[in-house]
Design a protein that fits this description.
- By secondary structure, this protein is of the alpha/beta class.
- A seven-stranded parallel β-sheet has the order 1-10-9-6-2-3-5, with helices on both faces. Strands 4-8-7 form a three-stranded antiparallel β-sheet.
- The protein has a single domain, classed as Rossmann fold.
- It is about 35% helix and about 15% strand.
- Strand 9, helix 7 and strand 10 form a beta-alpha-beta unit.
- Bound molecules: 2-phosphoglycolic acid.
- 2-phosphoglycolic acid (PGA) binds next to loops.
- 2-phosphoglycolic acid binds next to loops.
Length: about 260
């Protein structure tokens, strides 16, 4: 696992945006096949998305041959609600870039048969060629997508029940009312994420410091599902200084030294 540490959230977000842009351009230079990208929602990716939009508007990047799959969606929330992840993605990314609508995939939390929806999603990812890059975040409880503690590290896309922790944290998007937060979601599984050729997890701010410390320095465990990244050949955790705040000083220095050596 690689750990990239930047001074603040802005620099960390830009690092991720440029990594995604470079990966899309690198594949386009050698192949006509679409770039298959996993995307996340939340407060954390907003600056990364803003930078991707800037690059598209500047003519430096195109999503015309990108196929994206979002990692999760609430169950039972109409897509037009501003809190739905459908709305979020169009507001913060899709409305401003040139990705064709038919290339955008977001789980349907209103599907009549939720299990069939999840199964079809997994099949669609395979049919698209599998993820080239998966961009995710981390919850305060260490989840990746909505893979809450006790999710199997072999899990695939399925219906999940949110923990009280996640419902409390996400209530900020629902008038701070935990009763308004859906209790279930559809989410790609840990194994779905790990199937990507490259996985990038972005975490910023002191509230993520504990989960980051456990994911990086702790054992691989279903209690902190991001820790499964330890078993991925090309996993990168990108943090700002506050999110790195609970790492051991020696490890912090080592991650910085690795990056310095690679950039030499
Ligand atoms: P956040 O959510 O970016 O809003 O902190 C991340 C997550 O829960 O995965």
């Amino acid at each position: 696992m690689k750990v990239i540490i930047r001074n603040d959230a802005h620099e960390a977000s830009l690092w991720v945006a440029h990594r995604i842009a470079d990966a899309i351009k690198a594949k386009a230079a050698v192949s006509d096949k679409p770039f298959v990208l996993g995307l996340c929602t939340g407060s954390t990716p907003i600056e990364t998305y803003a930078e991707l939009i800037r690059l598209v508007k500047a003519g430096e990047l195109s999503f015309k041959n990108v196929v994206s799959f979002n990692m999760d969606e609430y169950v039972g929330l109409p897509v037009e609600y501003p809190e739905s992840y459908h709305s979020f993605m169009f507001r913060y990314l899709f409305d401003h870039i040139d990705e064709p609508k038919e290339n955008i995939h977001i789980l349907n939390g209103l599907a009549e048969d939720l299990d069939a929806e999840c199964e079809a999603y997994e099949k669609a990812i395979v049919k698209a060629g599998g993820f080239d890059l998966f961009f995710g975040g981390i919850g305060e409880d260490g989840h990746i997508a909505f893979n809450e503690p006790f999710s199997s590290l072999q899990s695939r896309t399925r219906v999940v029940t949110l923990t009280e922790d996640t419902i409390r944290v996400n209530s900020r998007f629902f008038d701070d009312d935990i009763n308004k937060v859906p209790k279930q979601a559809l989410s790609v599984g840990v194994a779905t994420v790990l199937g990507a050729k490259e996985v990038i997890v972005l975490a910023t701010g002191p509230k993520k410091a504990r989960a980051i410390q456990q994911s990086i320095e702790g054992p691989m465990s279903h209690m902190v599902t991001v820790s499964a990244l330890q078993n991925h050949p090309d996993g990168i955790i990108v943090v700002d200084d506050p999110a790195a705040g609970e790492l051991k000083v020696n490890n912090y220095r080592y991650f910085k030294a690795v990056e310095a050596a690679e950039n030499r």
